[in-house]
Amino acid sequence: MAQAQIHKFNIRFLPDDITVSVSEGVTILEAALAAGVNINTRCGGVGTCGSCRVWLKEGKVRSKHSARIKEADFKRGLRLACQSHAVSDVTVEIPVVKANSTAASRSLSSGRRETSILAEGWAFKPMAEKIYLEIQPPTLEDNQADIGRLRRSLKQRGIENLAIGHDTLKRLPAVLRESSWNVTATILAEEPSDILVLLESGDTSGNHYGIAVDIGTTAVRAQLLDLTTGTTIAENTAYNRQADYGEDVISRIAYSRRKLGMEKLQQAINETLNYLIDEMVSHSKVDKAGISHMVIAANTVMIQLLLGINPESLRLSPYVPAIDILPQLKARTLGIDLPEHVYAYIVPSVASYVGGDIVSGITGSGIYQRDNISLYIDIGTNGEIVAGNKDWLVTAACSAGPTFEGGGIKFGMLAASGAIEGFELEAAGGTPEIKVIGDTAPAGICGSGIINTVATLLRIGVLGQNGKFIPESGCHRIRQGADGLEYLLADASLSEHGQDIVLTEMDIDNFIRSKAAIFAGCQTLIESVGVNLEDIDDVIIAGTFGSRIDIENSITIGLLPDLARERFYFIGNGSLIGARLTCLSQDLYRDGLKVSEMMTNIELSENNTFTSNYIASLFMPHTDHHKFPSVEIGR
Amino acid sequence: MAFEVPKINYSGAIKEIRLGKKEPPIMVGGETCYPFHLFEGSMPNLPRIAMEVYDSMPDNWPEAAVEPFKDVMGDPVKWARKCVTEFGAQIICLQMASTDPNGLNRGADEAAETARQVTEAVDVPVIVWGTANQEKDTEVLRKIAEVCQGKQLIIGPLEEGNYKKIAASAIGYRHMVIASSPIDINLAKQLNILLTNMDVPENEILIDPTVSSIGYGIEYCYSVMERIRMAALTQQDEKLQMPIICNVAKETWKAKEVKISSREAPELGDEKKRGILLEAMSATVLLLAGGDVVIMRHPEAIRLVEEIIGELAG
Questions:
Q1: Cβ–Cβ of A623/B160 closer than 8 Å?
Q2: Measured between alpha carbons, how far is residue A450 from residues A383, A473, A614 in Å?
Q3: Among the ranges A78-87, A473-482, A599-608, B282-291, which has the highest mean pLDDT value?
Q4: H or E segment at A485?
Q5: Residue B6 contacts by C-beta under 8 Å, 6 or more apart in sequence?
Q6: CA-CA distance, B143 to A318, in Å (whole number)?
Q7: A471 in contact with B at a CB cutoff of 8 Å?
Q8: Ordered structural domains, chain A, with CATH
Q9: Is B36-313 in CATH node 3.40.1170.60?
Q10: Is A623 an 8 Å CB contact of chain B?
Q11: Would you state the pLDDT for residue A173?
């Protein structure tokens, strides 16, 4: 009997105008991923988030109905890409708002502010060192073995107890002889013994580079370091291509359990890393063979996905990661396209949701060196908080949700060109003055823009402390929308996509939940060690989102504790800073190991005090106004 | 050295509120100590009991609850008069059960007329309690507020989802409000803040923390009420210093243990006593947690609770 023929259909994606041929039954979303077309998805393609909307322009698709799409819109051709497959050649259009909010072509802005609250007292002595050696050639009288001669030379430079890999051994005699016994050894600091990772002919010590990477759930940031001088010679950022398979860590974990899911996720992060490295190398015209080392800081899920380790246990009680301190691994075995001899150091993790990114940030910011009590907050989808000083460190993670990065917000987007960030309004009846990143037409609003908008509306009485609009305030920009009341941020005639840009009550609800999780997390963590929020000496705000926020407005809405403003510091991407410094200093590498062991993790997810603090924080600035003495609202 | 009884140092007091217009005034609240901790402070007004009156013929009531009201059920005016004259009710709570959209779904005008007649028939303060259907309550309670202008009713429940419009009417027509939140100290406080932000005076608000019968999670209610009192009295939390009202009778009398007959469940004992005792015991628990007004049904249960209050205060 003849096999049923499998049909193939062409799917054309607008506005990019990319066409891909797929087999019958392949969803539009899968087709888009294959074609490299960005379609937003937060749920990993199971039809629950409703963000992968496309308009059917031509052809026929078969779709499951979704509660996320109104009947009228369905009739007009709106579909969820993950719930639809083609039954003819089709053309679909990705709504421009969503296309923009994830388009990798848009540049991510890096933090605007960095302060000098960094680790101190460390020596510049990279984890990987290149040492030029002039070895005495053997003679009949001095006939010690090649390796012995090498060891002897290294000992004279203070280096002993080296581990030497098989690769290096195999090439040892040839390299020594072809170089007339003048070689450069690359030594990598490692516990319990250092490793000789490379032996090169002649003096290559000037050709010596390192790579520091922060793998974020949303964005990956990398720096190319000159290990002879410690300077950063190139820097680059890209969206984590894993985002195509789910926006947050939980949906990534879920995706990794699918058939070939882990392989696809690993491939995606490898592509992202390789793209970043190649861009930096070609931009700076560095010899890629001169790269000697790589340091990676990331959250536990990103690390386990990079390593191909099943991350399931991270999200299930009792929330235990598979790994903490790891031996250094060859970058190439992780799928990273770097020379054979390059090892990657992965900054150790502490707990399920307290990963190497945080250890790296604490190391880089030097909290563990000072008497002062610091509160380190990395605000993001997963908010990580550390408090402590040179004697103790406690840490907690709280799930804040994606709103700070624009997720769960009707017109939310990352802080990229087109995002409304500044918002000023004097009185309820006025027209706001908005500031858009890149000075272009607005396309949406980013997390810092929401903070500024909500704080302003709260201050002038357009928004209540419970996050509900007050139409009686005389604000004519409040109106009834599809999801309840909404505030008109920008009129359709001014926006990039010709739609009104609004902030809805539902958006604000989601946002308040995020800010409450962060504040309640800080409060619970600090109070769990018998310290009060007022006793904090320094507040260090980390993360790309964090570096954009306005402190005054963040306190007004109750995201950050009401402390003297000069106690706040912005460190930018603490994880990347820590990775860079670790790459540059063996002292900090060892301090990082110590820091990871010093941190005590407090699990908030099953903590009654946290729940109570969280509900008290679901109010602006807070149910207990004594906690916000400088905020006038509601007095 | 002489032994000294350890005492709690209170820094706050519950607001003293006058209910209705009756002379001499019916006052509630004013405590400067935990419930009945009279060795530490004072309770200038002992807790009050409000007697339930239903705006329509109740169905599914156990025989024990029907018996005292058999002759007046279905006529809220007579029912209210009977409570005051025969049972000595100090406060009436008119339950607007007939407005429930899942039941008779009576309109706001009709409900308001009933409320007007009842308030005119008695001289004690009247509480008007809706069905906790937020939309319908908004409509009904606003109308009642308007029609009963100047009667100084106590109206509720006002919840986070509908407080604004009802509170606006209450301010406009000079009534007090009951701020209702689902068993959580923070939510209770948030609603009080929102109400005071709207310029509802702090001494015209009663807190309904949401209560239940014994056997149906009363421990949670107890803890939350206790925490509200601790915040009010020891942490000077002025947004929680309002008297607490507990709408407990309808919770106890719908319990399975009250409704089931002695024939079906002989191990539960006498049907009549069961309901009365469950009501009296539940109310007592709530008074010990900090209740200032308890809404009760059965005259015998009320007598028992009054006796306990007298003994505790004696």
A1: no
A2: 17, 20, 20
A3: B282-291
A4: strand A484-490
A5: none
A6: 54
A7: no
A8: 8-94 (3.10.20.30), 128-201 (3.10.20.880), 209-346 (3.30.420.480), 368-400+512-624 (3.30.420.40), 403-507 (no CATH)
A9: no
A10: yes
A11: 95
Query: Which of A466, A478, A512 should we substitute to test contact with B (largest number of B Cβ atoms within 10 Å)?
Result: A466
Put simply, the chain A residues between 236 and 275 with a CB less than 8 A from any chain B CB are none
- Chain B's closest residue to A620, CA to CA, is B190
Sheet strand arrangement including A382-388: A568-572, A538-542, A374-378, A382-388, A393-399, A599-601
pLDDT of amino acid A34? 56
The side-by-side arrangement of strands in the sheet containing A484-490 is A478-481, A484-490, A501-504
Give the A:B interface size as CB pairs under 8 Å: 28
User: How many Cβ atoms sit within 10 Å of the Cβ of residue A409?
Assistant: 25
Residue A115 has pLDDT above 60, yes or no: no
Inter-chain touch A615–B187, beta carbons under 8 Å: yes
Q: How far apart are the first and last CA of chain A?
A: 81
Q: Which residues of B touch A615 (CB under 8 A)?
A: 184, 186-187
CA angle B72, B74, B77 (to 5 degrees): 65
* Both structure tokens of A131: 């040492």
pLDDT above 80 for A108 = no
Beta B16-19 vs A599-601: how paired, if at all? Answer: unpaired
Write the burial class of residue B194 (CB in 10 Å: 0-12 exposed, 13-18 middle, 19+ buried). Answer: buried
Q: Does A616 touch chain B (CB under 8 A)?
A: yes
Contacts of B160 in chain A (CB under 8 A): 466
Distance from CA of A426 to the nearest CA of B (A): 20
Token digits of residue B93: 């709570």
pLDDT of amino acid A371: 92
Q: Are A9 and A86 in contact (CB under 8 A)?
A: yes
For the cut 60, the answer to whether the pLDDT of residue A111 exceeds it is no
The C-alpha of A548 sits at a distance from chain B's nearest C-alpha, in angstroms, of 30
In this predicted structure, the answer to whether residue A101 has a pLDDT above a threshold of 60 is no
The Cα B314–Cα B312 span in angstroms is 6
* Closest by Cβ to B186, choosing from A464, A616, A634: A616
Contacts A608 to B, Cβ<8 Å: none
C-alpha to C-alpha distance for A219 and A204, rounded to whole angstroms: 34
Q: In this model, does residue A596 exceed pLDDT 50?
A: yes
CA distance A634 to chain B (A): 6
Yes or no, beta carbons of A623 and B186 under 8 Å apart: yes
Give the whole-angstrom CA distance, residue A77 versus residue A25: 19
pLDDT of residue A112 exceeding 60, the answer is no
What's the mean per-residue pLDDT of chain B? 96
Interface of A with B in 407-466 (CB under 8 A): 464-466
Angle between helices A261-284 and A300-307 (to 10 degrees): 100
Chain B environment of A619 (Cβ under 8 Å)? 186, 190, 193
Q: What residues of B are in contact with residue A464 (Cβ under 8 Å)? A: 194, 197
Cβ neighbour number for residue A501 with a 10 Å cutoff: 24
Rg (C-alpha) for chain B, rounded Å, is 19
Mean pLDDT along residues A55-78: 86
Contact yes or no for B89/B280 (Cβ under 8 A): no
pLDDT at residue A3, rounded to an integer: 46
Q: Are B189 and B211 in contact (CB under 8 A)?
A: no
Q: CB neighbours of A275 closer than 8 A, spacing ≥ 6?
A: A238
Please list, in sequence order, all residues whose beta carbon lies within 8 angstroms of the beta carbon of residue A281, skipping any fewer than 6 positions away: A224, A234, A288, A291
* pLDDT at position A186 over 70: yes
- Range with lowest mean pLDDT among A193-197, A331-335, A571-575, B185-189: A571-575
Q: Which of B184, B197, B237 sits opposite A615 (nearest CB)?
A: B184
